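Two entries, shown back to back:
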Amino acid sequence: MTTETFADVNAVIAGLDGAVTIEGNSVEIIDGAMVRETLIERLVWSAVFGEPDVRTASRWLIRQIATASGAWPASIHALYMAAGRNEYANVTTPAINLRGMTFDLARTVFRAAQATRSMQVIFELARSEMGYTEQRPGEYASVVLAAAVKEGWSGPVFIQGDHYQASPKAYAQDPDKEITAIADLAAEAIAAGYGNIDIDASTLVDLDFPTLKEQQEANYRNTAELTQRIRAIEPAGFRISVGAEIGEVGKTNSTVADLDAFMEGYTEELERRRAETGEEITGISKISVQTGTSHGGVVLPDGTIEDVAVDFDTLGSLSEAAKSTYGIGGAVQHGASTLPETAFGKFAAANAVEVHLATAFQNIVFDSAAFPADLLAEIYAHLAANHGDERKADQTDAQFYYTTRKRGFGPFKRQLWSLPEATRAAITGELQPRFELIMRELRVAGHGELVERYVPRVDVEVPIPEALRGSQAHREPIRGGGTPD
């Protein structure tokens, strides 16, 4: 992959010559092979590492090129609501968090999807991950869409804001400010091309209250407010998929009674808001629950991962209640990537609508024999120097580095993107079979007709950025090469 960014916006425009023309707020692809072979890599590198105006121009171009190529940002809402009506069953969407080497890993996911004839795959990033991976929504969406173009993907691209989570500490200090921060992040993500937002106010559940509904009140009330705020800004004709959560991952397992308490309060709160505003305010399409997992797994002193017993019966009961009682897609499982391969088929059998996967893919990257030993040593030295305060007194080196190495993705982003092609190919060669296995076990493989049947294509017009328009404002259409007339 090229590691050269465009120097300025005029250089970006010159780089389009013979491949793409800009027509108003869209593009026309003149030479698709040239786009895939050379231009898209230069654009994605510029979208991540270029100067501000270059990043803005490159991200807009990537989105427009992707859409023109047939890879369009999409919402999974309608598909999940079909599951809520029992129009399909026992197909579980993998939602994959890409923390680093994002272009290479997203390309690998698309290749795995093509190999297994899967279309029901989500790319996601959590609110917390944005910080330590140094990936804001605009960057993440652009990289995923560029990967789709590079791999010749045709169809919807589902990009999701994972765990847009309320911080209990920040909420206690200023509730309105914290909820507004989540709403603002959702707006940023939607503008970038995300069609799916997972609200997580389960951190605000207060078990000190005597009844389940009282315990869930801060959760359902703030989830309803955020749902309303998302609906107010979603593009015309584009229904964002909104998820909620009732049980914080890694804590007490959820129950159907917890689900009922949340949904009763959430439904009442939405009805109140509809009555006050006269707005439609479509509700959630899925509900995240806790059934025994934890994010990243539990690492033992020797660095191996402790076996986890997922309560699949509870997961199945929650998913059935979500569908039959509330008409939504079903239950969502978090923290599952480190489970043994034999477990994944059980999620589809339990009729879970979605499962979230992250840490196991990170582990394959860092633990690969192809990963440069000197770079890993440099990352670990950085973690020891800058995150030593996170080390617990009884942690071994293996435990400390396992729990903190995710923090190396941001500071070492350029080095990871710049690894030799052979190194990156060896690492992604280890990842692709895992992606394919998960797609088969979750039964999205060979079920692309579900997406084709239920997911509508809605192209959202995104105005050309001033940085791009201003450089060649007096010439329409904008074409690559040469100098302004």
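entry 2 starts here
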Amino acid sequence: MSTSDQTLPAEISNFFLAMQAGKPARERMAALFAEDAVYVEPFSGSEQTHEGRDAIIGTMAQGWEQPLPEMSIAIDRVETGGGRVSVAWTCYSPALPGGRGSGVNEFELAGGQITRLVTRFT
């Protein structure tokens, strides 16, 4: 695995832009995921797996109903290898403990879309 400051693939860059935009970017976010994509996330308090674009967007929509105020996301590090792109990030919002939280998103891409996304807190 190599650490790099390389330019993010467009799918991943657009994912983070849509995350920051929230609900208004619903359609843009949906278009980033393959129809049969898988999303593994910890946001409900325990790890949950969502299969299929509709299920993924459905779970994201729950978060869009109560968005973090003044939220921004910084990309801290990008690592590539084994067909995956791993992105360490920091999310800033006054609603988070200490004003920030961090994690890693591991993306798998095919055909210009996200086929698998695993999010973990650090």
